[in-house]
Amino acid sequence: MRTAATYALFGLELSDAVRSRWMSFTAGIYALVFSAFVWLGLRESAVMGFTGLSRVVLNMANAVVLALPLVALVATNQAVVRARNSGLFELILSQPVRRSEWFASAVAARACVVLAPLAILPAGALVVGGLLDASDAPLFLVVARSIAVTSALAWAFLGIGFYISAVARLPERATILALLVWLVASSLHDFAIIGVLLQFRLPARAVFALAALNPAEAARVAILSAVDPDLSVLGPVGFWLANTLGAGRALLVGVGWPLVLGTLAMWRALRRVERSDLVG
Questions:
Q1: pLDDT tens-digit map of 121-130
Q2: Apex 57 CA angle, 27 and 194, nearest 5
Q3: pTM (two decimals)
């Protein structure tokens, strides 16, 4: 009975997400980024020879790391606060349905909307790469790495978005908080680290720890370690990472920390939903 209720709520939330055209919006963003990198790779092939879809997939994942937090936050920051203010919770609470069941269905629906196009495009590149260039053996590992990193990053910001929506009392405040979180993750965090480095001489491990607190930076390092295992582009920090952590542990940090952060944020959002007054 409880499973049937969850499935019914999941269908309701997913149909609402599809009607709001979020599926088309996210798929369009990912397809545009992927097509742009394929086009650039084909243009360079006249001079250097086409380097295969592996680099295209890695470059696409690196670009998606910037756009994905915004997509996930915008897709989730209205989920709880809109249901509270529209009277949906008043209707749900009048039925034999638990709050946790609605929350699980809402999370699953938003995760499908954000993650499905993100997994389909690299998987399509894997199929196309096998047909066009069977010698591109590392393509499978590259696709698996990209999907793992971007999915973990999406989970982190899905959790943050749901927590923002559960805490905010007004939809406008939720939107502002989501934009502030995206700005901090995409640019302000980097400026803050640069400011700290200008004032203090920090060891490489401290710089990496400060940067990795931002799940987007942790994901970017994990993607970059596949393109450049020596991480020479990061200077002394990259030298320390390559010799201390290595590409494998950098991948573990890029996947593990966003998953932990997203799970913690989801748990806090669920606690808020279960304990707060959800009738606006």
A1: 666 666 655 5
A2: 95
A3: 0.81
